[in-house]
Amino acid sequence: MEKLLGKIHSFDSFGASDGPGIRFLVFMQGCPLKCKYCHNRDTWEVNTGNEYTVDQVIEKALRCKTYMDASSNGGITVSGGEPLLQAKFVTELFKKCHEKGMTTCLDTAGSLPINKQIKELLKETDTVLLDIKHIDENKCLKLTGSSNKNEINFAKYCSENCIDMWIRQVLVPGYTDNEQDLIETRKFIDTLKSVKKIEVLPYHDLGKSKWIKLGLKYPLEGVKTPTKEEIEKAKKILCNNN
User: pLDDT tens track of the chain, all 242 residues?
Assistant: First the structure.
């Protein structure tokens, strides 16, 4: 029987902000979105990356298990790119993680239609880190190249099936910081039953060098990091009482 292989961009052995506790991070290769602020531009292509078996990834993760165990609910987080593109591989990886006593987090934009394999993956997911790109469909299309319908449906499915979620909003001045948009985002979040945390992630251009290295023009040239006041305003709208 042919072994299941995952196309992986990279690993990070010590993640402290991508789910509860200390986490081993796996960045999958491939993404259907074209986010203007993407800091992992080199993960977009689906036919690149290095191939690993589930057991090879588990072997890497287990080297960090002492640190995971020393923290609260530490474990493995699979990000990207968009891990839903390789849902079968991530499902098998998460099953093996649970066998080894590691919690599982899925860092996703929910950017694919929910199918049988994604439902199987979510059964093995302890926490979903859901990046809501934009609550306004037209603005989302301009920002990411795609509608927000899939991510909205993904959030609703997680809520209906009591799958814990951390909702994340990247705060990009001039793109995602409109007050009414933030209010509408919070209204949507309030309809969800399984949200455990809401995070405002300030935009930065630390990924700009990756665009340049690929010979590409950085789409948000000149956009500044949000000010402390802008961040606090967004947090007040999105995070109060959560």
Answer: 568 999 999 999 888 889 999 999 999 999 999 999 999 999 999 989 999 999 999 999 999 888 888 877 889 999 999 999 999 999 999 999 999 999 999 999 999 999 999 999 999 999 999 999 999 999 999 999 999 999 999 999 999 999 999 999 999 999 999 999 999 999 999 999 999 999 999 999 989 999 999 999 999 999 999 999 999 999 999 998 76
Q: How far apart are CA 76 and CA 92, in angstroms?
A: 13
Query: Which residue range is the domain that position 151 belongs to?
Result: 5-239
What are 211's two structure tokens?
């665009």
Which residue has 């300030």 as its token pair? Answer: 202
Residues recorded for the chain = 242
Tokens for 71? Answer: 């923290």
How far apart CA 38 and CA 195 sit, in angstroms, is: 24
Q: How many structural domains are present in the chain?
A: 1
SS3 label, residue 70: helix
What are the tokens at 136? 């306004």
Q: How many CA atoms lie within 13 A of 229 on its CB side?
A: 0
CATH number at residue 200: 3.20.20.70
Contact 166, 17 (CB under 8 A): no
How far is residue 212 CA from its own chain's centroid? 23
SS3 of residue 227 by DSSP: coil
